[in-house]
Amino acid sequence: MHTFSHRHFISAYQLSREDMLLTFRHATEYLDFLHSSDRKKDDLSGVSVVLAFFENSTRTRVSFEIAAKRLGAEVTSFQSAASSVSKGETLLDTILNIEAMKVDILIMRHLYSGAHEFLATRHGYPNGRVMGSIINAGDGQHEHPTQGLLDAFTIYQKFGAAGNGFYSDGLKGLKYCLVGDIRHSRVARSNIPLFKALGAEVAVCGPGTLMPPDLDALGVRLFNHIDEAVEWADALNVLRIQHERMEQGLIPTLREYISCFGVKRKHLQHKPQLAILHPGPINRGIELESDVADAAQSLILSQVERGVAVRMALLKLIAENRTRK
């Protein structure tokens, strides 16, 4: 039987297909639990979890908090504006002080790319004692691996699961396209390796100015118009334009962007079986029309629901791995 061997979860590239399928099996069980009348399990009883969000978040922070509490963990949450970071304390000192309080799992979002890897390589006190596990809840323009995992689970349940059984081939043959601002999207950087590891064919669609410079190395197909992507894909994951992370002048006008890359009702009418995802927050009328966001083909709220189940599974697997070691 496959064993989850990761102490930290920092990058989507860490996970093998077997890791993902194991996570999905646990997530399926937890999804059933979330649909039941039971409110809490004791899988993380006695485990201390801290949510450290140095960047604004709604869905991810609340999802992790609910996941940890439903498993019976002791949960503490703080944001940087109310912490000693605002007084000039370094990130490393802040985290070491938190861990001195016997924290088992640290779930962190940070505005700087690589912040989690930095902490993981400098983890623990000078005497060499290893401290808690780190879960990446988003770091700058680098990755958002738990979002990628829940996106994959959402699609896996729709396309890859047969009843209560699971295909060992994962998502082999599925055509999956990320649409929009790929260059600034940490969601895209996590989705691409996860979906490829599960066997899906992966493509991106968006203006050339919003494509990453290392696009060729990512091994994905490129579409230059939304009509082409819709014709090819089984599922679209539509990303917002991240104005807060981009320089000016990367798109000509919003009207032209919507015309070339916005997902519209006509696309669903043309291809009714097309699945629509979005990691949120949605800019209605820009990357997709409201009729698309609210359509029967939309899996957006399913993503949110499955996000809690996936994060419950991940917390359980990491806690179990810590116990084994």
How would you describe the overall organization of this protein?
With 325 residues, the protein is α/β, with parallel strands linked by helices. It folds into two domains: 12-143 and 305-324, Rossmann fold (3-Layer(aba) Sandwich), CATH 3.40.50; 147-304, 3-Layer(aba) Sandwich (Rossmann fold). It has helices spanning 17-34, 59-70, 91-99, 115-121, 145-160, 186-197, 215-218, 226-232, 254-261, 265-270, 290-293, 300-324, and strands at residues 48-53, 74-79, 105-110, 133-139, 161-162, 165-166, 175-179, 201-205, 221-223, 235-238, 275-277.
**Count, helices:** 12
Strand order of the largest sheet: 9-8-7-10-11
Oligomer: single chain
Which CATH class of the largest domain? Alpha Beta
How far the N terminus sits from the C terminus, by CA atoms, comes to 18 Å
Q: Give me the secondary-structure category.
A: alpha/beta
- Alpha carbon gyration radius: 20 Å
Q: Number of DSSP strands? A: 11
Gross geometry: globular
Mean pLDDT across every amino acid position = 89
